[in-house]
Amino acid sequence: MTAFQAVSVLLEDRLITLNRAVGLIRRRNLPVRSLAVGPTATPGVSRLTLMIHSDMATADRAVQHLQKMIGVRAAVAFPSREGVARELALVKVRAPHERYAELLDVVQLYNAAVVDDSPEAMIVELTGSEAFVLSCIRALERFEVIEVARSGTIALGPTPNSEINHD
Amino acid sequence: MTETLTGAQILCRALLEEGVDVLFGYPGGAIMPFYHALPEFPELRHVLVRHEQAAAHAADGYARASGRAGVCVATSGPGATNLVTGLATAHMDNTPVVAITGQVARAMMGRDAFQETDIIGITQPITKHNRLVEDVEELAEAVQEAFYVAQEGRPGPVLIDIPKDVQNQKMEWTGEQSDRRRGERLEPTGRPADRPSALQDAARLIAEAQRPLIMAGHGVLLSNAYVELRALAERTGMPVITTLLGISGFPESHPLHLGMPGMHGEVHVNRAIQQADLIIGLGLRFDDRVTGNLAGFARGAKVIHVELDPSEIGKNVPVALGLVGDVRSVLCSLLPLVAPRKCDAWRAEIQSFVRPREENFRGGLSPDVILGAIDQATGGRCSIVSDVGQHQMWVAKLFRYQHPNSHITSGGLGTMGFAVPAAMGVALARPGEPVWAISGDGGFQMNMQEIATMVQEGIPVKMAVFNNGYLGMVRQWQQFFHGRRYSATPIWSPDYVRLAQAYGIAGWKVESAAELDETVRAAVAEPGPALVEFMIEQEANVFPMIPPGGSLSEPIEGEPAPPLVSA
User: Fold this and answer.
1) Residues whose CB falls within 8 Å of the CB of residue A93, separated by 6 or more in sequence, listed in order
2) Which residue in the set B121, B125, B311 is minimally distant from A68, CB to CB?
3) Which of A16, B41, B122, B523 is most buried, by the most CB atoms less than 10 A from its CB?
4) What sign does the CA torsion over B512, B518, B524, B529 have?
5) What is the dihedral of CA B438, B440, B442, B446, to 10 degrees?
6) SS3 B143
């Protein structure tokens, strides 16, 4: 069944290793929806999270290819809905004076926060699943959205991960 | 004892520690410190090629023939980029090659320096692993890692890129640096363990099948599973199909040997696949040239796939059962569980599919007859290295391979120009054994400069050129699928006999079957390299042929009628 699958990769914290992993994903023509990378609890190890829109077999094959790569400590795939998947977005948005209160209502409705407010525009921070974030951005588009920065989805799987075991 | 060594000296010692005895290379600016150190290590034989592509192919040929990593060396920039085709060839066919490239000095890197290229970036998709050595301290370990990764598990090429100043960098060498790190290598992460019952399931599927087949691929050769494959076939009576890279994994005179499958497989082989109810794939990828259109491939067959690399299992063909491991060890575990049986009715059915061959060749000089003459003149004791194209299919199908790993070719990448340089590597890996490089007139002209290398280094390769004046395989496709528009496929050749003379080697031109045996015997008797040109039928075709996109059930067995109205 085609759905969002999270592929979570623990890899050596070096640009060349990240480059290799992402190159492999491109070469194997995987339907990548988002990429996010950042440090883990283990020094020297990063986590790369890929969201791909595919069946589970495709995600499992991606894992098998990644596991062969030198510098990859561990890789797992799980259906996104079975784990916890979150994305952070920053939205710079502007509203005319008379609609400012309406904008704040939208921000509140989505549990978002205003993290910067200037006379020209405000920056709204919001967190949630990709669908939630998209829905919120759509709501904000009723005002004037100037720019959007999204982190890409990060996710943790339902079962204990092997980050610790592999060091 | 501590001594001060340069990176280049450490590199040479590390190569010796890995058991390297021959390197194929070409010097240049960024690799000069290595070449400066090389004469201090006379155990390392350096073969100066005429083009770096040939160095990579020769290292590949050496690896395929010996089972040990072949080594090639090039300078930065153009030297390194010239290795690319050879590395991609080794990558697709999983052969262990270690490539060493010089790089501009660290301080110059990233500034578009003279002869700088990002060879790490360029070769990333076509190597199993690659690595820039950033300091002399990590050099010995990088070499060990390269040889380990190239040869462990599913083999492949590894490139190490060494900046010129790292080659010149000095360090205190105690001799322990390499030992210290041995054993703590970066292992690939875990492989899934087979269910313990999986082998029993496999044995049960074999026992229950009415029309089982073995398809043997490169994994049989890579894991030395000749004895085990033969034991499985003989215990069960299952016929054995050998893929292009599986050829010579099973003796061809054996009554259970069927032949090669796929695009140019014999009709009875492909029909056997289509009729089978069980296919046991041993160390192969189910490549599209083997399966034809996947939707129509072996629709009645369950597939047991034995493969070292789990990512291959189920990649192209759905499997009933996947067994992860090298072919030899899986077969060793499986054999005791397999009950003896016979497949006589099934084999008789396959025999009824066999079609007689009808081909006309000018002067009677058919590929069959030529290969028969080579077989006879060498007593079958020779390595055959083929190039890519029509002759490759003839060489694959018509020579009777009796000895393990006696057929070497570029399968996955299909690299024209492979045969001549790869044969040099084969010859150095198998001293004393006759090696024939068989090429078409197209592929031969891609790397014929290597005759000079053979002469300078005394490498006695016999070169056969099948000359039909065309890039024959492309011409065949043009004939069948492009309305006979022979665009850019007629190809002129030099006078090969005089070319041989110019290089100072023996050369012959054979135009009829009458001259064949005597000439081939003379070439075999020649102590050094020799060249024989065979003038074959110009528009001969390779039959049968599965049209691109077609299923194995739709072979073309004769020339299509020419179009009624020319386009």
Assistant:
1) A103, A121, A122, A123, A124, A140, A143, A144, A145, A146
2) B311
3) B523
4) negative
5) 0
6) helix
Residue with tokens 């040939």: B54
CB-based contact B188 A16, cutoff 8 Å: no
**Active-site residue set of B:** 52, 114-115, 164, 473
Provide φ and ψ at B358, rounded to 5°: -125, 105
SS3 state at B125? helix
Which of A64, A69, A161 best tests the B interface by mutation, with the highest count of B CBs <10 A?
Answer: A64
DSSP output for B51-95: SHHHHHHHHHHHHHHHSS-EEEEE-STHHHHHTHHHHHHHHHHT-
Give the B window 136-155 contacts with A, CB below 8 Å: 149
**Residue count (chain A):** 167
Amino acid in position B105: A
DSSP H helices, B399-554, are: 419-429, 441-447, 451-457, 472-481, 496-503, 516-525
pLDDT in tens, B513-527: 999 999 999 999 999
pLDDT in tens, B283-296: 999 999 999 999 99
Which residues 6+ apart lie within 8 Å of B464 measured at CB?
B370, B374, B436, B437, B438, B439, B532, B534
Is residue B221 within 8 Å of residue B282, measured between CB atoms? Answer: no
Each residue of B156-198: pLDDT tens digit? 999 999 999 999 999 998 876 655 444 444 444 334 445 678 9
Cβ–Cβ contact A44 with B under 8 A: no
Reported ipTM:
0.85
